[in-house]
Amino acid sequence: MNLTLKVWRQEGPATKGDLVTYEMTDVSPDMSFLEMLDVLNERLVTEGEDPIAFDSDCREGICGMCGLMISGEAHGPERTTTCQLHMRTFTDGEVITVEPWRASAFPIIKDLVVDRGSFDRIIESGGYISVNTGAAPDAHATPVPKQNADRAFMAAECIGCGACVAACPNASGMLFLGAKITHLGELPQGQAERSARVVSMVDQHDEEGFGGCTNIGECSHACPKGIPLDVISQLNADLRNAAGSNR
Amino acid sequence: MTDTLSEFFTEGEPIADTKAPKVPIDKMWTQRQFDAGLVQPTNRSKSSVIVVGTGLAGGAAAATLGEAGYHVKSFCYQDSPRRAHSIAAQGGINAAKNYKEDGDSTYRLFYDTEKGGDYRSRETNTYRLAEVSANIIDQCVAQGVPFAREYGGLLDNRSFGGVQVSRTFYARGQTGQQLLIGAYQALERQIAAGTVDEYTRHEMLELIIEDGRARGIVARDLVTGELETHVADAVVLASGGYGNVFYLSTNAMGSNVTASWRAHRKGAYMANPCYTQIHPTCIPVAGDYQSKLTLMSESLRNDGRIWVPKRAEHCDKDPREIAEEDRDYYLERKYPSFGNLVPRDIASRQAKVVCDEGRGVGPKVGDFRRGVYLDFASAIERLGEDAIRNKYGNLFDMYMRITGEDPYKVPMRIYPAVHYVMGGLWVDYDLQSSIPGLFVAGEANFSDHGANRLGASALMQGLADGYFVLPNTIRDYLSKGPYPQVDENSPAVAEVKAAVADRTEKLLSINGERTVDSFHKELGHIMWEYCGMERNEEGLLKAIDLIRSLREEFWRNVNVPGSADTLNQSLEKAGRVADFLELGELMCIDALHRSESCGCHFRSESQTEDGEALRDDEDFAYVAAWEFQPDEAGLPGKPVLHKEDLTFEAIELKQRSYK
């Protein structure tokens, strides 16, 4: 198939960016979106041009490194990661716009590469259980009801790609945050720090420049792992409870 | 043959591990921990450790060393420690918990691991791995890793390829992700506590050695291009495996050998580099543009039945229309007691055998169909589609997305692919390399898996090394300090940094005609063809020749666009491919000299009458540890082979049989 790509090119954080048009011919429908960009990059290098910088690593949909706005949608028209989006999704002759994640908390590094360090700093502010290595009781000492374990797992599936933020008109990171709050909050191990965790993580979220949540739901819709919107309700409930506790 | 071999390497002094205490194997680790020196708590912040890599081994080590109070610097090339490739492991993690009361024990896990590795791993290290496995599960559960549970609230287990007990803990098909997130969260906690400094988008490009000890690294900030010097009392490499030397593999795109190779060039021995695990259950290759291969968890073999048509003329038929009596369930037929759960090397090779016979299925790539069916029809009939969905749902979705076929209705197609390397830098019982102060953990070292890795054992080794082994053994090394301060501006350090800058400059100035990827693909093709699942002397000799000319062309004709002072992904790749081009040759030399078949390493000259791998314990029960020797131009010369004899005291060395 033949495609027209309009790709965001930006040399660095301080320079102005622009959409540049590239014509692609003979694109195989079995290629992943990133493999299609690989082919374009090989051509650009051969023609003496700078290849397009984009992030990817595992290309199995789990590391969370890849992430592009494709024709205005985070990871493109299907609910998956960019590396798992295949060209069979598109039609011959289509014009596709490719941009980086759009959020001030994710500053652009180059072309389609952004800095998601703010997510790490949110986890750093309390997204863990404080247990030192070697200090753990036997794993069977604390049974966890299956339904709680399953819900914790569902929330823990978040890959930290940032699509939720990119898709949100407010650039809010609440789905990412809610997923971690729900994951740890469903487990007995997570109870001791539950209130302190939610308060400091929300504080850090705001400090990083993410927007507030106004229940639009684009985040969950764009999430490649299908993290449901109710993790945000859980986050809000925990936050209310924390306000009443003396953490 | 001996004459041919002497062209490629020389043999040096034998080596041996001297750190494992001389006590019965079940007392060894306790004894070693007791013997290891202590660093008193208030002194710990004065000791510093650099950890390269943030996967299960590196992330866990950095977090644990941070908890202990040492000053840690943690490096990864990704934008976050959470992206390390351990995250992609699907199936599970073994632990000798015996929660199922099915006869499991530390000794049995040790026994299975040794046997699975075809008796080419070091007994003492392997026993310790089995011993600490149970602690790993406790640790991860305490961190909040959501392992699969039964309705009573207790942990569930499943069985895995190559074993007959259920000892594998899992989190659906995303066990690696969940374990890595656990380690990552522990690491972030230490970053917040100020014990760990985090350097993301940084790549180690050189090792700094002073007075014969590893004392630091030169790293490139991948965003600004700046070369930075970092010094410490000890350096840990937990930088993963080098399977990407094959270009197509299940490794992440960025996985590379540079950290290990740079250390090897500085004197760290590289052990058993040719030991590559070929994983039996990957999605087959679809076309030339393909950038990587995707693994389907081996746990699928618990319920999926593997078959090909009995007759080649049925290969292009819809599999559902091939009658039962026309199907060849070849693993069940040849290995009745293990059936579809035979170890990976056997499953892989047998898939190749039936495809070579012209009975492969799926699209033709070249002249061959390279695929076999992994069929869930009978499991779905027996357990119901919901049960299968519950167990493997995400794997089935992934398969459907990549191939466009529905595995609930049509059997999956699988084919072997490069997945994991058992070779790596040589380490002693303390996980210290042949360079004092340089420790190596996880896939980057060689010690625990022998010639073949058992399913669900890589995650176990990564976490065992990171959480439990290294923190204890490094303690001993640090307790022998304090080591003199390294001056970051000393001539020796400046020289190393200048060498890195020169190399970068050289890559950028060649301005040739071929892209980095084209070299990488060509190297990968040579490696897969001649040093892959099956090797022989003739092919390996040819491969060495081809690699040498390719390397020569690379340094004359590669085209690396852009500059050094910015994010430059072509430059990153070029440096990695340059190292792969050197490693590839060593892998072939290693494979050439080991004229026995063992594990995944099948030498066609060494097989039984019925085509099974034939090991040669008389001549090859040793670890091949290679020392780098540069020629006058600084390029790889003739490496020196140091043999470490493998001694088996706790276990009897036997021929494997899975019949």
Question: Mind explaining what this structure looks like?
Answer:
The complex is a heterodimer of chains A (247) and B (659). Chain A has helices at 33-46, 117-124, 146-156, 163-167, 174-185, 194-207, 218-222, 230-244, and strands at residues 3-9, 18-24, 69-70, 73-74, 95-99, 108-110, 113-114. Chain A has 247 residues and is of the alpha+beta class. In chain A, the strands form two sheets. A five-stranded mixed beta sheet of chain A has the order 2-1-5-3-4. In chain A, strands 6-7 form a two-stranded antiparallel ribbon. The longest helix of chain A has 15 residues, at 230-244. The termini of chain A are far apart. The model of chain A has no long low-confidence stretch (mean pLDDT 96). With 659 residues, chain B is of the alpha/beta class. In chain B, 37% of the residues lie in helices and 16% in strands. In chain B, a hairpin with a 6-residue loop joins strand 5 and strand 6 (166-169). The chains are: A alpha+beta (247), B alpha/beta (659). At the A-B interface, helix 1, helix 2 and helix 3 of A face helix 3, helix 5, helix 6, helix 11 and helix 12 of B.
Q: pLDDT average of chain B, as an integer?
A: 95
Share in β-strands of chain A: 5-15%
Q: Give the uncertain stretches of chain B in residue-range form.
A: none
Class of the largest domain in chain A in CATH? Mainly Alpha
Main beta sheet of chain A, described? 5 strands, mixed
The multimeric state of the shown protein is heterodimer
Number of helices of chain A: 8
Output the CATH homologous superfamily of the largest domain in chain A: Alpha-helical ferredoxin
Q: What is the averaged pLDDT score of chain A?
A: 96
Spatial gap, N to C terminus of chain A: 59 Å
Spatial strand arrangement across the major sheet of chain A: 2-1-5-3-4
Give Rg of chain A in angstroms.
Answer: 20 Å
- Second rung of CATH, namely the architecture of the largest domain in chain A: Orthogonal Bundle
- Give the helices and strands of chain A as they follow along the chain: EEHEEEEEHHHHHHH
Largest interface (CB within 8 Å) is between:
A-B, 78 and 80 residues
Largest sheet of chain B: 5 strands, mixed
Secondary structure: helix percent of chain A: 25-40%
State which percent range the strand residues of chain B make up. Answer: 15-25%
Shape of chain B: globular
Instruction: Give the tally of β-strands of chain A.
Output: 7
